[in-house]
User: Fold these one by one.
Assistant:
Number 1:
Amino acid sequence: MEPQELRLMLKDLESDLIERKASLSDPDRIKISILLADITTLKVDAIVNAANNSLLGGGGVDGAIHRKAGPGLLEECRRIGGCPTGEACITRGYHLAARWIIHTVGPIWRGGNNGEDDQLACCYRNCFALAEQHGIKSIAFPAISAGAYGFPMERACRIALAEMSTFLEKCDEIEVIAVCFSTKAYLCYIDALRGL
Ligand code: AR6
């Protein structure tokens, strides 16, 4: 596909997304944006890191966040001492534009019958719980587990969006951004939005 065609397609999808948002029961309460971006560049109160149990950094979004935040982040993560799968913890944002980083550890995909869906849903719930506790008003999520941990992107985006909208049903104070690092992720979120 030519880049021009892809741009046009994304433009169509964006209009479709706006219509979709408008068709939800109370559009003023739905504050989910789907954004193609590098999460480390966003000026939001908090960005979420798809970390591992050690919290000591790694590849993917975790590596990008640690590189940009600087060594203070690694030090604080070391003091925390790790994070179980499905849980979350919070640190300062250091050199990032975001004030906070919420670190969560998604499940490694093992075929789908080993509690992966529930663990992934827990990641989102625990991140939102920390966001509420810290008065965070805007939060950006990467597609947790959908990279190195192998969770199928379509399924990961469906779970993410379901948890985001469930949370926003009870708390409409927080702006939620689903960050996509590829057009595939973007298209999966649009599909998931259709299924809401
Ligand atoms: N901004 C937004 N999204 C990103 C960025 C970025 N800068 N970089 C990658 N993604 P992954 P996981 C997307 O692998 O699957 C690490 O080594 C990426 O395209 O970062 O939860 C940790 O230390 C994908 O859609 O996280 C763990 O060991 C999504 O973020 C392990 O990887 C998640 O991909 C965690 O694996």
Note: The first helix runs from residue 3 to 23.
Number 2:
Amino acid sequence: MATAVRHLMSTPPVTCDADASLAEAADLMNSHDMGSVIVTDGPKVTGIVTERDLLRAAACHADPLAEPVHLWMTANPDALDPDEDAAAAWASLTHHHYRHLPVVEDGILVGVVSIRDLLSVAQIRPADEAGTDLPRGLEGVVVAETTVGDVRGHQGFYHYRQYSAVELAASRPLEDVWQLLFDGELPDQRGANAFATEVAVLRTLPDRVASQLPSLASAGSPLDVLRTSVSLLGAELEWRPTHDIGQAELRHQALQLCSVVPTLLAATHRLRIGLEPVPPRQDLSYAANYLWMLSGEEAPTDHVRAIEQYLILTIDHGFNASTFAARVITSTGADLAAAITGAIGALSGPLHGGAPSRALDMLDDIATPGRADAWLRAAVQNGDRIMGFGHRVYKTDDPRSLFLRGVARQLGGPLVDFAERVERTAVGVLAELKPGRQLHTNVEFFAGVVMHTCGIPRDMFTPTFASSRTIGWATHVMEQAADNRLIRPAARYVGRPPPQLVPAR
Ligand code: ACO
């Protein structure tokens, strides 16, 4: 639309004074085939009365012969300039839900413009279009209410329930945090023992899943195998749609799923390298058992605790892409396995969970601290993303990265020193070449360093992340299922205007 309001308005406008009756206003509208009358006091616009006002008055049984328009009009209405672009006028009318506006030039009323006038040059668009535009990537858009946790990007803080996630990682075992998420409370010693026993017995793979795993294990990456085997698990255990089951049944499925995922992962890893899976042990904690099943050896205590802390830190993190995916799938009433399979798919992307192995690949490629500046500079100038840096929500240090840097330091070793030097250089290069973007180290950078130092193979980094995140996803699935409404947003169609004739062949 490049037409000015001047060319679309009705002129001269139909006017009356404030003491005219509703019946007189209705007669004017009728005789001029107009939907509104401008109320004036000499040359000054004091109000506008529209068909809608007449309807309101009729609905209130107002006497049209006795009631003056000033009681029903919109006083001191907004006005348009005749040279205003019709598109801007359209936006203003739809935004404010006006149907008619006076047009005023140099303080003098020159016309009136209506939605109907503007429609003559407008494309047909949804009536509720105004106000529905959302930022790309839904950045900052609130799509649900949750009691699971949240992220405060500008403060560098995130929490599970009412507790700082970092404090939980510093002070509690993973099972306690798992229980906090599932049941809403941190356990006391007795509750913790009972929960640990409850989940440890669920670690064994169902026979029909264990027997099919060897034929699946080399199909794609370990994360692909996890995605497929979670789907298989749900089918073999005949998990019913969340729509059809109660919270107790869903909680039991969720406990079993979270307990079995490390077993699936470790078995997959061993089958891929030609080794027999190591059965889970019930006497070990979640993290110790995971490392045991991967290598067949009991891991040193500092490695167990480092991995446990990494796992706690990554259980949940606001409405990230995979969590949202899990909730969208749950909102259809689909079963738990469907929701988690979809979430694993979302996590696999390099912009989400696929980054830690790539961050380590980058360290390999840089090779020596002296090459870092040139390598990183060239990558950013080439338009590449530096893996392990930047975050949609954090505009300051990612608290998970700060914590994991400390964990990595405690573990020690040459890779840790090198990673810290590359980190410093990367932050400087990003600040210089991407000023104002607030790009800091995210969880993935030191995650790779910690997992590598503790002996987790590189292709198992993202699957290990998926293991702890399954606890978070499952918590969200339960929350969504408990108070569900189908998540079904809309998109703006921007293709060629329909309907067009379907061409003959
Ligand atoms: N390296 C270089 N430039 C970057 C990086 C990065 N790691 N991250 C963002 N930028 C730049 C973008 O090029 C863009 O620059 P421009 O304004 O000149 O176009 C600007 O910063 C904003 O980037 P967006 O893509 O709009 O930021 P968004 O919030 O969508 O992306 C994301 C966040 C995907 C994490 C991004 O920072 C990234 O790609 N990082 C690297 C991958 C990574 O580490 N992923 C793991 C994230 S943590 C997790 O999911 C568990």
Note: Residues 137, 351-353, 355, 380, 385-392, 430, 434, 437, 439, 442-444 surround acetyl coenzyme *A (CB under 6 Å).
Number 3:
Amino acid sequence: MKSIALLPGDGIGPEVIAEAKKVLAAVGAAYGREMTFESYPFGGAGIDECGDPYPEVTAAGIRRSSAILLGAVGGPRWDALPLEQRPERGILRLRADLDVYANLRPVRVHDVLLSYCPLRPELAKGTDLVIVRELTAGIYYGERGRSRANGEWQAYDTCTYTASQIERVVRAGFETAQKRRKILHSVDKANVMTTSGLWREIVGDLAPEYPDVKVHHLLIDNAAMQMMRSPSQFDVLVTENLFGDILSDEASMLAGSIGMIPSASLGPDVSLYEPIHGSAPDIAGLGLSNPIGTILSAAMMLRHSFGWEAEADAVEAAVFRVLEEGYRTRDMTKVGTEAVTTSEMGSLVAEEV
Ligand code: ATP
Ligand code: MG
């Protein structure tokens, strides 16, 4: 029996979570798996209900759960709040609380999606990669400041990594590669940055422990170019927080819509699953949102948190069969062509499962 904590959040979050829940219920029925679902207030909804984007009732519920499925947070309604009190603050606190240091973002360009890819289709064909991004250290968490000196402003952000922070995420990269095509690209800027020098050293030290994995070192600027030149050469990329943030947004466009991409944030205890998109307040409540990123995030949950490989495969196969049959939400259709609603897409995938 698995207990799943749902954090629907704001904007399109509740709509896409409802569709993922539908698909999980279908998995339970088809495979005889028992799952319970409990929803908790989070983000703007947490602020409205409890005065806190990450309320105690949510933190307590998460501690009792087997895994967490998150929609998205934020929206214009809370934009006037100071940074420290905004919905987004809840996510940073949640990630730190869970210590989810490895963020996995798979990008798969299925043949039926090639026509949405901004590249020439022959370049993106066959792309099936995972970016493993370090999520809880580096420049986003370092000391920062602003001051005036010699009559002008100066500002600084510091990037710090300890050897153990690098080692644990690099191991996640190697282990991910071992389960796939066994190619690991470690992405850094070792010709300029000291943290990258340490990163590269640690990758080199760990490589002999994974003799079946072929390791390549790549500078971030070259990686960004290669991602557009020939993305199908990549299997697993492992990189630090800032580089991973930028590289994964770049790579997500290969699959045609931001609504398509799932993610898993793995740590020592309970893991967190969410689509990479935001709360999309411009389309909330209209049935226009694409729930596939969230449905695929739920599949990652089945695989990584529960070890239910066949069930995860079934969800992924169902998604691509529905796409093959020609069904699309509005973000993936050309003007003047038919689209299905968020809820219809969820039902189609659930039936296929
Ligand atoms: P955040 O800061 O929370 O990431 P954002 O403003 O960067 O939010 P999104 O909320 O992801 O961005 O929205 C960016 C654009 O993509 C919007 O036009 C939105 O409507 C669209 N979009 C995002 N997610 C989806 C989805 N699941 N289906 C369809 N369109 C989407
Ligand atoms: Mg965004």
Note: The CA atoms of residues 45 and 83 lie 16 Å apart.
Number 4:
Amino acid sequence: MTATRIDGKAFAATVREKVATHVTRLKESHSITPGLAVVLVGEDPASQVYVRAKGKQTVEVGMNSFEHKLEADTSQADLLALIDQLNSDPSVHGILVQLPLPAHLDEALVINAIDPAKDVDGFHISNVGLLGTGQKSMVPCTPLGCLMLLRDQLGSLSGKSAVVIGRSNIVGKPMAQLLLGDSCTVTIAHSRTQDLAAVVAQADIVVAAVGRPEMVKGDWIKPGATVIDVGINRIDAPERGTNEDGTTKTRLVGDVDFASVAAVAGGVTPVPGGVGPMTIACLLANTVTACCRAHDVAEPE
Ligand code: NDP
């Protein structure tokens, strides 16, 4: 292995420490406690894990955590009424509706009902537009975490060639906007891209947000490039044996074939322990930012 293993877990811990310091300052100097409300509709197991982790870390940095768990058959009107209530609650500075929502709910309508100033996921169309036009906005947590890791690893990103694989609204598109904002030359690749390996081979920076286990191979990568793996994929791991119910044990892998890429790249994030921990740390940072803006207090840099 030649690449630096980019330790998102350790970096996320430093982000959380800074958040905790700001929370203490807000409490002691301004008597304000930032609050994050997380809304979970239904019982999707992965979403339950994420919501639990978010709640735990919110409390650990000294903020208030408000969890709203709703039945899977909650009506759109009831969900919108809850968002309305959270929008007007002064103790709530950030609102996150855990996605995906059950199929009978209109995701875009629900997200756009959140007060943009409390939209700590950065998915509201106002925040998307502000980010796209280079104005102050709430920035989506996963791409923000990737950007922080890249800046920490590389310093200035100006003039670098970046390829983002994936064009989703929650990762790929905002990631491309952030890299453009840092003066990269950005290419967005997707399922219709022709000769993806050749496109990736041009890049100084590769961000993979696809959802396909270990798709990006070492022989696609320009020597010395920095590779950020957003993917979280659960695959069977027969080498780990079987569960009590006889099913095969599983493990998490990214969209990047870590071993072959690490032999060529300059730096690469592992899965787990790379981008994942940064996402929640950035959610906490966004909540502090939203709180500072709401109270006209200097926000963290
Ligand atoms: P989406 O499914 O919304 O988007 C996937 C993108 O990958 C699409 O744009 C799709 O192209 C593209 N794609 C699919 N197949 C290929 C292919 N063969 N070649 C090139 N591009 C392809 O996923 P998300 O953006 O929501 O998530 C991506 C991954 O990141 C997932 O594994 C998810 O679990 C993970 N994730 C991790 C987070 C974290 O905190 N670490 C947070 C959010 C997501 P097209 O548009 O043409 O269909």
Note: Residues 142, 165-168, 170-172, 189-193, 196, 209-212, 230-233, 275-276, 279 surround NDP (CB under 6 Å).
